[in-house]
Amino acid sequence: MSDAADRGVGGAPPRPISLVRADGAYLVDDRGRRYLDIGATHGAGSLGAANPEVARALADQARDLIYLGTGYSNPVRTAFVERLLGLLPPSFGRVFLSNSGTEAVEAGIKFARSSTGRPKVVAAMRGFHGRTLGALSATWRPELRAPFEPLVPGFVHVPFNDPAALEAAVDETTALVLLEPVQGEGGVHVATPEYLRAARAVTEARGALLAFDEVQTGIARTGRLFAFQRSGVVPDLLLLAKSLAGGVPIGATVTTDEVARRFRGSHHSTFGGNPLACAAGLAALDFTVRERLAERAERLGAVAFDRLRALPPDRVREVRGLGLLLGIELRERVLPVLAELESRGFLAISAGATVLRLLPPLTVPEAAWADALSAVVEVVSRGG
Questions:
Q1: What is 106-170 written as a DSSP string?
Q2: Is residue 245 over pLDDT 80?
Q3: Which residues contact 55 (CB under 8 A, 6 or more apart)?
Q4: For residue 263, how many other CB atoms are within 10 A of its CB?
Q5: Which pTM does this prediction carry?
Q6: 3-51+292-382: CATH topology
C-alpha cells in the first residue's frame, strides 16, 4: 500500500493491493498478479483501463497541445462535440464540457434553474448524482448528506418507479426532474419505461425540464449507446461522464438549443473541454461504435442473467440490471463476498450494504467473463 493512499482524506480506505497497470480487462498489481476487472474501475474503464487507441490519441495530442482555455476554438474539441451530438437525437444541440459526473450534474441543475426561472428540483429516492453540494442535494442517501448539511435548498425526493408520486411532486415551481435510467449506486434498480414516459409527460405538462443522469449508464453500458434509447423517452438534458473518454476525466452536460437559448448567467470550467480529454473522448467514441460495444454489452449481459439463474434464492433476493450493469441483492452483507472474489482474482464493487455490483469492461473476453460468473455463483452460493 502506498504512502499516497495512506494520506488520502475523505474517501473509502484503500484495499491492501497496489495496482500499477492494465492489460486489457485485467488490472495488475505491483507483484505481477493479475485481477479481472468486474467493477473496480466503476464503469469508467469500459474500454479497459489502458485502451491502446485512447493512449495513442493522448500521446499524439500531448505533442501538439495539452491545454487550451474554452475562449479559443480547437479542432479536436469541435470534432469530439460533433461526434457526440451525431450519436444523439437531433433535439440535442449544445454541449457543456467539464471534468466529472458531479460537475455535469451541477451544470445541469444550474442550466435548468436559470432557463426556467424556477427553483425546485425533483429527484428519486435511492438516487446518486455526485458529492459536490448541488449534486449531493439531489442525492438521496442520508448518510452521504448529513455531514455536510445544510445543503442547497429546493430539492425534493420521491419514490423511484412511482409515477403517481412523481406527478404529485412536480408543480409550477419545478425547474427540473432528475432521474437515473438505472440507479447504479442505489442498488442497480432499473427505471420502467412507463415511469420514464410518465416523467416526460408531467414535465411537459408543467413546464419543467427532464434530465437523465447517464454518468454510469451512458456510452454502451446498458446494451444501447444511451440507456434512454431503450424507452424512447428523450430528455431535455443528458448528463455524461465516466467512460465517455475511455477513463480520462471528462463530463458532458448535453442540452437542447432551447435550454441554451433561455439560459441566463454564466457557467465555466477551466479544464473542461481540454484538448487531451477531447482527443481521448473522440478515440473512445470511435472505438465504442466501431467495435459495436453496445451490442456486445447486450449479449454478454444476457449470458450473465442466464448464468446467474443458478444462484440459490435462500442467499439471493434478486438479480437486476441492463446489459453489463448488474446488481445481485444478497440476503447478507456483501463485503465478505467481495473479499473472497478478490482472493480469487476478481475485483467487484458494492452498491449498498447487500448488493454486489458487476461493471466489467465492455471489452472483457468472453471466456474471462464466463470464469467471473462461475466464481460469483460459487462464492455467493456458499457465502463469502
A1: HHHHHHHHHHHT--EEEEETT----SSHHHHHH---HHHHGGG-S--SSEEEE-TT-HHHHHHH-
A2: yes
A3: none
A4: 19
A5: 0.95
A6: Aspartate Aminotransferase, domain 1 (3.90.1150)
Give the whole-angstrom CA distance, residue 308 versus residue 373. 7
Residues designated catalytic:
128, 213, 242
Indicate the pairing of strand 189-190 with strand 325-330.
unpaired
Among all chains, which residue has been given the C-alpha cell 442540452?
A: 255
Q: How far apart are the C-alpha atoms of 196 and 175, rounded to whole Å?
A: 17
SS3 216: coil
Residue 273 has what DSSP assignment? Answer: T
Does the bond joining 150 to the residue before it have cis omega, within 30 degrees of 0? yes
Q: Return d(Cα 194, Cα 199) in angstroms, integer.
A: 9
Query: Tens digits of per-residue pLDDT, 172-182?
Result: 999 999 999 99
Q: 3.40.640.10, 3.30.70.20, 1.10.10.60, 3.40.50.10860: which CATH number matches 53-290?
A: 3.40.640.10
pLDDT in tens, 206-215: 999 999 999 9
- Locate the domains of the chain by residue range: 3-51+292-382, 53-290
Give yes or no for residue 5 having a pLDDT over 70: no
Position 314: which residue type? Answer: D
Per-residue pLDDT tens digits for 76-105: 999 999 999 999 999 999 999 999 999 999
Cα distances from 48 to residues 126, 144, 215, 284, 299, in angstroms, run: 28, 29, 17, 11, 18
